[in-house]
TrEMBL record:
SUPFAM superfamilies: Outer membrane efflux proteins (OEP). Gene3D superfamilies: Outer membrane efflux proteins (OEP). Residues 82-101, 492-545 are annotated as: Disordered. It is found in: Cell outer membrane. Keywords: Cell outer membrane, Membrane, Transmembrane, Transmembrane beta strand. GO terms for molecular function: efflux transmembrane transporter activity; porin activity. This is TolC family protein. InterPro entries: TolC-like. Residues 498-514 have a biased composition (Basic and acidic residues). GO terms for cellular component: cell outer membrane; efflux pump complex.
């Protein structure tokens, strides 16, 4: 690839990365940040397009179920007569004079419809496998979305802390630099002992180093959030930071959370679909051991003038197989059993890991909540202490150092408060990601940013009340689910507007065909509605903001 070709490709990519996005010309709320991440994040778009590709593969696999229709046509010619004679096998005497029954120039054509029963069976299981692969890709998309929400939560509150504290940090740096300049002048003029002046400067330089380090970290926070919601690098934007940060309890018992995680977690559900694929793979392996029957039928044409019938219809039934299938059968059956057992064991191991992740995330959330509570108290004390020191009238240099140190300590305490809140929100996000609860309904993915942010806000309020939405219903064994087809339709419309129309029509076809063969299954109501349970103990509460 030449530099010009790469430059042209880069220009196209740059325009496509941020095309079709609603402008951000107002303070960004957390719910809108989550909505923009869901609509515009490129990693999420990749999963949406992978889901559309898997749906296309399902459509292609269904055509393999149809009989094969083949046609041939040819013009045949030669430079001499296609003649022959006959000779007696007993006497060796020529019995007929040379003759011909074929024209030198002729046209031949045929149309053959063939159907191999073994290929049909294999194609049937291939279609079932591909339908389940759509479900696998959909679970992967759910996992990416849930992890994305978790990252946006943490990044938003880190960026909120950066925005709130940016002015105070700049002011503290300016005061520290001014005090450092004055101290150096005092040292130069010999107004204070050199040791005291150098100790004072060392303390100021240490404060400046800490402030500049924090300023650098905070400057990166908004860039990280911008990348998650796919804003152009360097775009200036502000956050709508609430005045009060609160962690409110959500009454869901640990037993109910464990049951929900085992039911809705996308990793576990993915393994369930992979087992279906493994079972169908076993069916295919067994089917290939059987003899194959091929049926063919079709019209033929030959322009040869010596033929009595220039057009005719021919048919055939052929049966064939391999004798070594009898030798391979025991090994094949054993391998299929082991493959199914492997998938079951992997799902069980993943279930144990999911429960461990849930308990770890829950403990991390409790620890982060306590840390936030202590950080809030400490920030309040440091702020009042800084105010008291600032109000004192101190004319000496040592008084400036105490005032600046108190201000820096107050800034750090406020920063730790926002960081503790961000960690609490991240831990809460890990709980929701482990539970596998979807942030918004499938149909909401086609909304604009404002509508989508409202849906996210509504979903968070339901989480706060302890209501856990039902999972996306699958389509049963080996069929494309109608709900997943609807999800793909909505997501495709979000990912690429220019391809939404064709992909939506395709997904609607998948949905209608799947509805004829299966009836979606849903999660039991005991898992779907967490509020019906009795309130848990005090140590079994989680919170949300």
């Amino acid at each position: 690839m030449t530099d010009d070709e790469r430059a042209a490709e880069l220009q196209i990519d740059t325009a496509a990365m941020f095309a079709g996005q609603e402008p951000l010309n107002h303070p960004l709320t957390l719910h809108e940040a989550l909505a923009r991440a869901l609509k515009y994040n490129l990693d999420a778009r990749v999963k949406v397009m992978e889901e559309a590709l898997a749906s296309d593969d399902l459509d292609l696999s269904r055509y393999d179920l149809l009989p094969k229709a083949g046609y041939n046509g040819a013009y045949l010619t030669r430079n001499n007569v296609d003649g022959s004679s006959s000779r007696s096998v007993t006497t060796g005497v020529q019995t007929l004079e040379p003759s011909t029954s074929t024209d030198r120039d002729r046209l031949v054509a045929d149309l053959t419809l063939s159907w191999n029963l073994l290929d049909f069976g294999v194609s049937y299981f291939n279609a079932r496998q591909q339908a389940n692969r759509i479900l696998v890709v959909d679970e992967q998309r759910r996992r990416v979305t849930q992890n994305l929400f978790q990252d946006v939560r943490r990044a938003f509150w880190r960026a909120a802390g950066a925005q709130v504290l940016n002015a105070r940090i700049k002011s503290a740096i300016h005061e520290a630099q001014g005090a450092l300049t004055n101290s150096r002048q005092v040292e130069k003029e010999g107004l204070r002992p050199p040791v005291d002046a150098l100790r004072y400067q060392k303390a100021l330089l240490d404060l400046l180093r800490q402030l500049e380090s924090v300023q650098q970290v905070l400057a990166i926070s908004k860039t990280e959030l911008a990348s998650l919601i796919n804003l152009p690098p360097g775009q200036n934007y502000s956050l709508a930071v609430p005045r009060s940060l609160a962690v409110q309890p959500l009454h869901v018992s640990m037993a109910r959370m464990e049951e929900t995680a085992l039911m809705l977690n996308p990793d576990i559900r993915e393994q369930s679909y992979l087992k279906r694929i493994s079972v169908d793979e076993a069916h295919k392996a067994i089917l290939k051991l059987l003899p194959s029957a091929n049926l063919s039928w079709g019209p033929n044409y030959d322009s040869n003038s010596f033929l009595v019938n220039n057009t005719w219809t021919a048919g055939a039934v052929r049966i064939g197989g391999y004798l070594n299938s009898l030798i391979l059968a025991p090994v094949t059956l054993r391998r299929t059993d082991n493959a199914t057992l492997l998938v079951d064991t992997r799902r069980e191991a993943l279930s144990i890991a999911t429960l461990a992740k849930l308990h770890i995330a829950y403990q991390q959330y409790l620890a982060a909540s306590r840390d936030y509570s202590r950080s809030t108290e400490l920030a309040d004390v440091d702020q009042r202490l800084s105010q008291q020191i600032t109000n004192r009238t101190a004319s000496d240099v040592q008084g400036d150092l105490e005032r600046i140190s108190a201000e820096v300590s107050a800034v750090f305490s406020e920063l730790r408060r926002y960081q503790a809140y961000a960690e609490a929100q991240a831990a809460l996000g890990r709980i929701y990601a482990t539970l596998g609860v979807d942030p918004v309904p499938s149909a909401a993915a086609s909304y604009d940013v404002i509508e989508l942010s409202r849906e996210i806000r509504r979903g968070m309020l339901e989480w706060q009340r302890g209501q856990i939405a039902e999972p996306v219903a699958d389509a049963g064994q080996g069929a494309a689910p109608s709900d997943v087809a609807s999800t793909a339709t909505a997501n495709i419309a979000t990912a690429k507007p220019e391809t939404a129309k064709s992909e939506t029509a395709k997904s609607e076809t998948v949905k209608s065909e799947a509805a004829k063969t299966v009836s979606p299954s849903a999660v039991p109501s005991s898992v779907a509605t967490a509020t019906t349970a009795a309130p848990p103990a005090a140590d079994q509460k989680i919170g949300v903001n």
